[in-house]
Specification:
alpha+beta; endopeptidase activity; single chain; ClpP/crotonase-like_dom_sf; serine-type peptidase activity; signal; 2-enoyl-CoA Hydratase, Chain A, domain 1; Peptidase family S41
């Protein structure tokens, strides 16, 4: 009890220690946030800190106690001039000019030109195809090598950014600098930079015992996390045109909510709200410690949407008596079921179909050893049940799991069924089973078992197949995702023997995401293929992962995906040739309607 009181007092003190108005703090933090990103990712000074996260913490804390613009400009200059001495911050009403002479050594002999190149954003702790480098900066054991350029476009010396970081305050940030032996020009005062690094380390939040405590219980941790994550996404996320809100509004809202959050769990929801506005199905926000409890457990029921209603489609516990397949869910925990789902979906990022699919999976989640209250309408009228959360909670489920189990194999003479989200693809299977079938049903309502599913593709074609989707990795040298070039990735599929002559039917739904959509894109439009179901997730391309202080992670799509004809894939997904949604009668009767339709068409076409 005493420890709880100490923590509470510490938190109350941390909030009361910054007497400035909320509007003043907001202005300070937004200015710092924008400048922080411009300098970290687009200004190549050699004095840059090794750990930018600590600078974000330090700066966030400083911004909370600044009372006017004069102090704000002075503090920003104090921080950034020691890590980026050629950066200028000033009142917009007293404009300054970029002075090329101030970044030019008296004698440029032996100097190289240093600037940033980003192929996507290379982020710490997550190895990926994305890379960020400073050109012409020696590295390695003997500082003798410089990284090779990632692409042709690069900044010229003399290029700079001049922009507002908040209304009435502007900055000038050079994009390129002269460098010699790894040191950029002009140099900051060495002692001043060392002093800043020492102050940054000393400013880390501490618990009641005086130990460094990196937890979102402290406001500077929450604010730093927003600033770090927002800048990465602002400058490298490729789908801002599909976001629900402009990046600047998202920053304003996230900072405002972060200041008022009271716990790591509160802040987890703030990050989720921030990311939900970006509409990216790869955008997952997690807290690893303390472990989130709201998704610990779930009830042994599966829900789906049919005819505009939320319906029980599977009962996974024989002890649940009185609830039947096809029962309509009217409310969850006394809240109208549609409003309840929307209250969950506001924290989810992605397309509408992806969010609905995911919210249905998570609808009954909650802490373990608890129950969920359901009001339903069945064949005998209204009923209410308190259902135990007795199995592990889920945040994703393959769509085929909503349906009655179907085993891989021959469903009818000459009709073969294979679940690509569950069953393994082997060469023997292709040569013996699939090759001899007249019709094959591939179930891709979910995520592929592994990459072996792609080994099927060469056997579905009798001539080389051009890539049906292309991936575009951003080539970034300017901030705010402007003037972006792209490295296009994509190759054709070559035909292999044996050629499978069977009619192909592919089942899909919104749970089919990423790799599933690569497969779907390749087969869509082939003369022997029919896709049946509902649109896929509309999320494809390699992810990137942001690790934040306080043990939060955010994943997001780091590249753009388009269909081969240049048309949009993001959010739209792969559209089936035959759209088929569940019916309440079909669910009541335990029918897998997309599978039944595929069998029916296959029988007709195989005659």
């Amino acid at each position: 009890m005493r420890r709880v009181l100490i923590i509470l007092i510490t938190l109350l003190y941390s909030l009361s220690a910054y007497p400035q108005s909320a509007e003043r703090q907001q202005r300070n933090l937004e200015a710092f946030a924008r400048l922080y990103g411009y300098v970290q990712y687009f200004h190549p000074s050699s004095e840059a800190p090794k750990d930018w996260a600590v600078l974000a913490l330090y700066g966030s804390k400083k911004m909370l106690s600044i009372s006017n613009d004069t102090e704000l400009i002075a503090e920003l200059n104090s921080i950034f001039n020691r890590v980026a001495p050629s950066v200028q911050i000033f009142l917009t009403s007293a404009p300054r000019r970029f002075d090329f002479k101030k970044i030019t050594p008296p004698n440029i002999d032996g100097y190289n030109i240093v600037s940033w190149q980003h192929l996507g954003f290379g982020l710490p702790l997550y190895p990926s195809i994305y890379q960020s480098i400073k050109l012409n900066i020696p590295y390695g054991p003997k500082d003798t090598k410089s990284p090779e350029q990632l692409f042709e476009t690069k900044m010229k010396i003399g290029a700079y950014l001049k922009t507002d970081i908040t209304e009435g305050i502007s900055c000038i940030v050079p994009y390129a600098l002269y460098s010699k032996q790894g040191n950029t020009y002009p140099a900051a005062a060495h002692l001043a930079t060392q002093e800043l690094m020492r102050d940054m380390g000393n400013s880390l939040p501490k618990d009641s015992l005086g130990k460094v405590s990196i937890t979102a219980s402290f406001p500077e941790i929450r604010l730093a996390d927003v600033i770090i994550a927002w800048n990465i996404l602002k400058h490298s996320y490729p789908y801002w045109n599909d976001a629900s809100l402009p990046a600047e509004t998202i920053l304003t809202n996230a900072i405002k909510k972060s200041i008022s959050d009271k716990s790591p769990e509160d802040f987890l929801n703030t990050l989720r709200l921030m990311c939900a506005e970006m509409n990216d199905g790869h955008m997952f926000v997690d807290l690893t410690d303390p472990k989130e409890k709201n998704n610990e457990a779930t009830a042994s029921l599966t829900l789906t949407e049919a005819e505009g209603k939320i319906v029980v489609t599977k009962i996974n516990d024989e002890k649940i008596i009185g609830i039947d397949l096809g029962d309509i869910v009217d409310s969850i925990e006394h809240q109208d079921v549609m409003k309840y789902l929307l209250s969950r979906e506001k924290y989810l990022s992605g397309s509408r179909q992806w969010k609905r699919s995911k919210s249905l999976v998570m609808a009954l989640n909650g802490p373990k050893n608890t129950c969920v209250l359901l009001s339903l309408t069945g064949k005998n009228g209204k009923k209410t049940f308190l259902v135990e959360r007795n199995v592990k909670g889920q945040t994703y489920k393959n769509g085929y799991e909503n349906e009655p189990y179907t085993k891989e194999g021959w469903l009818r003479p000459n009709i073969y069924y294979m679940n690509l989200s569950r069953d393994s693809v082997t060469k023997k299977l292709i040569e013996e089973q699939l090759f001899s079938a007249k019709a094959i049903i591939f179930d891709l309502r979910g995520y592929p078992t592994n990459d072996e599913v792609f080994s099927i593709l060469p056997h579905l074609i009798n001539k080389p197949l051009k890539k049906r989707q292309f991936f575009f990795i951003p080539q970034i040298i300017y901030p705010d995702f402007k003037k972006v070039g792209y490295q296009r990735e994509g190759s054709r599929t070559n035909a292999e023997t044996p050629f499978i002559k069977a009619k192909i039917y592919v089942l899909t739904d919104a749970s089919a995401q990423s790799a599933s959509e690569t497969f779907l894109a390749q087969v869509k439009g082939l003369p022997n293929v029919t896709i049946i179901g509902t649109p896929s997730s509309g999320t494809n391309g390699n992810i990137n992962v942001i690790y934040l202080p306080g043990k939060y992670t955010i994943s997001y799509t780091g590249m753009m995906t388009k269909n081969a004809d240049g048309s949009k894939h993001h959010l739209k997904g792969i559209i089936p040739d035959i759209i088929l949604t569940p019916t309440i009668d079909g669910i009541k009767n335990g029918q897998d309607e997309p599978l039944n339709l595929a069998i029916k068409i296959a029988k007709e076409q195989s005659r």
